[in-house]
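To: structure subgroup
Subject: Chain for Friday's discussion

All,

I'm putting the inputs and outputs inline so they're searchable in the archive.
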Amino acid sequence: MKKLTLREYSKLHKLSYFNVMKMARNGDVKSVIEEVDGKEVQYIVIEEEQEKRVSENIIETTSQKLTLKEENKLLKKEVERLKKELEKCNKRTILA
């Protein structure tokens, strides 16, 4: 049984600190709060079964090997789509 701080756990799994905090509060990962130097510090208790579940739920973004040009094209398309969606929202708020 190993204990890691939220920050260490987030670095280990390449997650945001906020997401790890939400996981601990929701009970997705086992956590304990201990007092260290007069401050309450939350630790994630690492268990083998829990780690398997967490690693399965983490979306692998590195599975797609894209070149920078391909990734840039995808991002440009996404920006255009978001601009169109924003225009629709603006039209709705103006008409309302």
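Points worth raising on Friday:
The longest helix spans residues 68-95.
The chain has four helices and three strands.

D.
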